[in-house]
Amino acid sequence: MNEILEQLLNRKSIRNFTGESVKEEDLKLIFEAAQRAPTSVNGQQVSIVYTKDKEKLKLISELCAGQEHIKNCEVFVMFVIDYNRTAYALETINQKQMIQESAEGIIVGSVDAGIMLSTLQTAARSLGYGTTAIGAVRLSVEKFIEILELPKNTYPLVGSTIGVPTKEALQAPLKPRIPFDSFVFEDKYDDKKAKDGVEAYETILSDFRKANGMNYKTSYKEEMARFYTKSYTRDIKNNFEKQGFIFKDNK
């Protein structure tokens, strides 16, 4: 097995850091790798805003539901959907941008940001660093728009920590995934396998947590109920509209 596959197959979120700095040359390489991620129509509609400032990291931690590992990381990276750049490109040739007025624009920007996030995290791990994706930035969108001074036609979508992982974090067991045959389907979706996989995963995850002293954790079904039985980021539509994304799709 080659090194890239081995790294991907052993990927895990890292939430415990040593406090050692991320080297400047490494950080630049990580960002350069992220910039090479695929982007729809070469639009490059994602920008990165990052900080190493400890006071800002503390504030970001508070805005993201008090996640301690954000405060303790060395670098926090925000992935920003950025149609400000493309709007300017069109203005200079007397054209008006419309993509931000469609749900497609949000999908395009979100897909690009997600690919870039994964690329950045893979690059960081290859250099010995650990990361965790932070979706909780969307709990405080207006604050992040203010802090990062984001213009219209931009949106702070997702974040990532970067830091030097502790030995214990690296040695932590990999959390199991749903059964492989309930995840990958050939030719057509298999609803029965998908649902059978959920039932099997209840036992798989429960056994994993018992074996690793995590009995306090909820089951997969209970965890999904905690998040998906409510709209826990209720202001997203309003926040998008304030930033110029106005959803004019035909109904």
UniProtKB/TrEMBL annotation:
This is FMN reductase [NAD(P)H]. SUPFAM superfamilies: FMN-dependent nitroreductase-like (SSF55469). InterPro entries: Flavin_OxRdtase_Frp, Nitroreductase, Nitroreductase-like. The keyword Isomerase does not apply. Belongs to the flavin oxidoreductase frp family. One of its GO terms (molecular function) is oxidoreductase activity. Residues 9-162 form the Nitroreductase domain. Keywords: Flavoprotein, FMN, NADP, Oxidoreductase. The lineage of its organism: Bacteria, Pseudomonadati, Campylobacterota, Epsilonproteobacteria, Campylobacterales.
